[in-house]
């Protein structure tokens, strides 16, 4: 499962894209906790990771 669609309740900027109120987005949950700026080893499977 990739994720459940979310509907924007207000305009929001994500990176260089604006999601307008009422538009749907489909988050890629498989990409969660993979930001190398936040996690030391983002590609390592770590179920204890917060």
From TrEMBL:
Pfam families: p450. Gene3D superfamilies: Cytochrome P450 (1.10.630.10). InterPro entries: Cyt_P450 (IPR001128), Cyt_P450_sf (IPR036396). This is Uncharacterized protein. It comes from Allokutzneria multivorans.
